[in-house]
Amino acid sequence: MSAPNLGTNPAPLGLCGFALTTFLLSLINNGTFSGDNVGLVLAMGFAFGGTAQMIAGMFEFAKGNTFGFTAFTSYGAFWWSFALFKVFFASTVSPEFIGWYLMAWGTFTLMMFIGTLTKARALQAIFFFLTITFYLLAAGDFTHNSTITNIGGNFGLITAFCAFYLAAADIINESFGRTLLPIGEPK
């Protein structure tokens, strides 16, 4: 058995797991689809958003990438916690406490956003919009205002599209051996 190729970039896997699951949940949060459709989000949360991101995080760990390890493993855990919460505990938790859960994730994401300020602009965009998304969704739960939640869902869609773009750029640029999709390298 040979050792894994640590030169392989695990980020597109993690970004796609994040983007696809975030995209589906955001379609519910923005009101495009009803909450009755959350089962598909939960399946994606367990399989792709949670598990694939955690796998990507472990490969980032092997590469010595603290940021990638922390981001992918943490957001993989977010999707697992969200799915487990919805399946087992949602009926007994107040919206205000869910707001605090989302607020905590927003604060963690703000910390991660600050960590991106020396990294590619495309990565900065993901964490910038995700921070706004979490805070808006928290505000929607705190105030019981579905309009704020819907706006948060729209920011979630922007976040998902940013993650799709960076994943596509990583894959396409590597495949062609040159930059076809710029990611805004830091100066």
Give the N-to-C terminal Cα separation. 41 Å
How many β-strand stretches?
A: 0
Mean pLDDT: 95
Count of runs of 4 or more consecutive helical residues: 6
Major sheet summary line: none
Describe the protein.
This protein has 187 residues and is mainly α. The chain is built from six helices and no strands. The model has no long low-confidence stretch (mean pLDDT 95). α1 (11-29) packs antiparallel against α2. The longest helix has 31 residues, at 146-176. The relative contact order is 0.15.
Topology record:
Layout: H1 11-29, H2 38-63, H3 66-88, H4 95-115, H5 121-143, H6 146-176
Summed up:
By secondary structure, this protein is mainly α. The chain contains six helices and no strands. The protein is 76% helix and 0% strand.
Protein traits:
about 190 residues; 6 helices
